[in-house]
Design goal:
Length: 523
């Protein structure tokens, strides 16, 4: 929504005057101008009615002007206002008995105030100021309604994009499954279809993770794993992630001035996500064979990364709003294949969590764009400790006997099968009651519990396991499709050690187990 200028505000809050005589109008206008109230003297009621369409804070009209069709004409003009508007109309009435004109005006308009003449100047100014205060509130309501309508439009477009993006990976998944179901293939012949399904599932997981993550990140509900990061390494990792899109578009990508000594304090995964998102955007919005340049520079106490392309460009009035939720540049949505339009919201939030800033530059549509990220340089606080090699995912998981509990049989059995391949001993249960019995006989060291089970849900099951002396030392991992802050609080209160989102990422599970093992060893 555009910002109102001072001139627009004066027009919106002016008082339209039509009095019995021109002398009365001049005197009233002079009095109101001295009180700081903008006025417009109208030569006729017809002119006043026309001026209402250009903007008004209130109408001040004498009773004489409402004779004949005057009251009906004014009532029609006020009724034609939009739903948010309730234009105040003040009528300067003659002293004495009520007139027919005033009665018609009061019947035809809701917001009418009758002021009997002669009226004190202070009373007139006070009445108009009250009317204008109410009018300002109406304009504020209009702004809120416009913002809500714009947000609703953005959400509608976003949901349409989401449906489109989720259908895209479903089509090859369905095709690959149909082929594998209907035809017996050798492992070598089937491998490309498994790889295809893996890529499409990874894509769907990224889409869902973005949806779940954007709310957490924008509210600061995320924990960064901070450390010294070499900027050139982060850029290399981001380029590697974005390489498929670059190659598909046959773009020329070049990195300039990557100083190997330039370091920031940050989370490697999150900053790689920032720059890969920006590179992906550049690739999506740049025509085939376009050019994308990455500049890495030092600016005082900051590392500055500029990503420039010769693609679709950005209108000047959207250079700030493109970082808002659900905003996409009009006319470019078709170019952004494979995205939901929330990537820049994530970028801005993650950069700000690192104490940095991000902005956009463009000369307009078709003129390319440049995104500039500025991050504070790393300040060494003393000698570091050499990082110890981490055990592999298999080693972290293989040492456990794991109980998998999920009312979805396919989900439970497939997860248990994967854990078996990684070397763990497993048992499966499909309900809370069955899980309690299995835990007593299997005696697992780790339980992965689905939260959303019917009957006894995962949280109630966790509480019962914690209450049992035989299972109090068991590691409990919650598995759920919900990742909002309230869900995490409820899960933590139930006694879980860790929370995983579906589908389970084995590397994330392995890292969680390593952290829990380290926590227990330092107690």
């Amino acid at each position: 929504m555009t910002t109102n200028t001072a001139a627009d505000e004066d027009t919106q809050l002016r008082v339209l005057l039509r009095t019995a005589t021109s002398r009365d109008a001049v005197m009233a206008a002079a009095v109101l101008e001295r009180a700081g109230i903008a006025t417009r003297v109208c030569a006729s009621l017809h002119e006043l009615v026309q001026e209402i369409g250009h903007g008004a804070g209130a109408v001040l009209v004498s009773e004489e002007m409402l004779s004949g069709n005057g009251a009906a004409d004014l009532s029609d003009a006020v009724s034609a206002q939009p739903p948010w508007s309730d234009l105040p109309v003040l009528v300067l009435a003659k002293q004495g008995a009520d007139s027919r004109a005033v009665a018609v005006a009061m019947e035809g308009m809701a917001n009418v105030t009758v002021l009997e003449r002669p009226i004190r100047v202070a009373a007139l100014v006070s009445a108009l100021r009250s009317a204008l205060r109410a009018r300002r509130r109406q304009y504020e309501l209009r702004r809120i309604l416009n913002d809500l309508n714009e947000a609703d439009k953005r959400k509608t477009e976003f949901l349409a994009t989401l449906a489109h993006e989720l259908r895209n990976p479903m089509a090859p998944l369905s095709t690959a499954l149909a082929i594998l179901t209907r035809k017996t293939l050798t492992p070598e012949a089937a491998l490309p279809y498994y790889q295809l399904m893996g890529r499409q599932i990874d894509h769907m997981v990224r889409l869902v993770n973005d949806l779940m993550e954007v709310s957490r990140i924008t509210r600061g509900k995320i924990e960064l794993q901070l450390g010294e990061l070499m900027v050139d390494r982060v850029i290399r990792d981001a380029v590697e992630l974005s390489r498929p899109l670059m190659d598909a578009g046959r773009h020329r990508l070049q990195v300039h001035g990557a100083d190997p000594t330039l370091a920031v304090e940050g989370d490697s995964v999150r900053l790689t996500q920032v720059f890969s998102n920006l590179l992906n955007n550049a690739a999506k919005y740049t025509p085939e064979g376009g050019r994308i340049d990455v500049f890495v520079e030092r600016d005082d106490a900051n590392a500055v990364v500029r990503i420039r392309d010769n693609g679709a460009g950005i209108p000047p009035d959207m250079l700030t709003s493109i970082f808002d939720m659900f905003v996409q540049v009009s006319g470019t949505a078709r170019a952004a294949q494979g995205g939901l339009g929330i990537g820049l919201t994530l970028v801005k939030s993650l950069v700000e969590l690192h104490g940095g800033k991000v902005g956009a530059k463009s000369n307009g549509l078709g003129e390319g764009s440049e995104f500039v990220v500025s991050l504070p340089l790393f300040v060494r606080r003393g000698a570091g400790v050499e990082e110890q090699p981490r055990p592999s995912t298999e080693a972290s998981i293989a040492q456990h006997s794991i109980l998998v509990v999920d009312d979805n049989r396919d989900a439970a059995e497939s997860l248990a099968a994967l854990l078996n391949i990684l070397g763990a001993r497993t048992a499966v249960a499909f309900s809370g009651i069955e899980a309690l019995k299995t835990a007593d006989s299997f005696r697992p060291s780790l339980a992965i519990l689905d939260i959303g089970m019917p009957g006894m849900d995962g949280c109630e099951l966790a509480r019962r396991l914690r209450d049992s002396p035989a299972h109090r030392g068991m590691t409990l991992v919650a598995l759920t499709g919900w990742g909002q802050p309230d869900d995490r609080v409820r899960i933590a209160q139930a006694g879980f050690d860790h929370h995983l989102l579906k589908p389970v990422d084995m590397e994330e599970l392995s890292m969680a187990l390593r952290r829990l093992a380290h926590r227990d060893s330092t107690r």
